[in-house]
Design a protein that fits this description.
The chain is mostly helical and 186 residues long. Helix content is 80%, strand content 0%. The protein has helices at 2-28, 40-65, 69-81, 92-110, 114-127, 133-148, 152-185. The N and C termini lie far apart (54 Å).
Length: 186
């Protein structure tokens, strides 16, 4: 029973990871940073880095479906190692890397490497914005890892942070929906 729950959780993360990569792939081709316009050279560097990340992601996805966990981990680690140009932290490349860290955390736990999972997840949290879906997922995965390590206080703290982020995301979504409803009425 416990093994089935673990497989369902990993498949759920894979689905989230797949959806995030699909959205990132579509939006990356048209997205220009609102905060900082990149030079043509940095824009090309970003696109090449992002395309490389997607190629590693696709390979990881296939390898995971073939139950080749060690090879999957290598492909996911390659995504983490990709360096994006400065000024692209609000783009899909970072979101893909953060989603990758969540998935890696679960895979490291599956491979009985919980310390490596914690290190990977905490590194992601240092990169992540305070409030985002990726930050929520990193805290949820961290909580799960701590729970499996029998570090219940740390697990509770991580789940608490995840819940607070989720509540904030929910309020932001409601405010956006309310604002877009008012715009339609005008």
């Amino acid at each position: 029973m416990r093994n089935n729950a673990k497989k369902r959780r990993l498949w759920s993360l894979l689905i989230i990871f797949t959806l995030a990569a699909a959205v990132a792939s579509v939006s990356s081709t048209t997205a220009i940073s609102q905060k900082e316009k990149l030079s043509r050279e940095d824009e090309k560097k970003y696109q090449l880095a992002f395309d490389s990340a997607l190629a590693h992601y696709e390979k990881a996805n296939i390898l995971y479906k073939k139950e080749k966990v060690d090879e999957t981990i290598k492909e996911l680690e390659a995504i983490i190692d990709i360096e994006f140009p400065a000024g692209t932290g609000d783009r899909d490349g970072l979101r893909l890397q953060l989603d990758t860290r969540s998935f890696l955390g679960e895979l490291y736990l599956e491979k009985k490497q919980p310390d490596k999972a914690v290190k990977t997840l905490k590194a992601g949290l240092k990169q992540a914005p305070d409030i985002s879906q990726q930050t929520y997922q990193l805290y949820m995965t961290l909580g799960h890892v701590y729970k499996e390590m029998n570090k219940n206080d740390e697990a509770l703290a991580a789940f608490d942070k995840a819940q607070k982020i989720n509540d904030t995301l929910k309020k932001q979504k409601e405010a956006e929906e309310k604002a877009s409803g008012k715009k339609k009425d005008s």
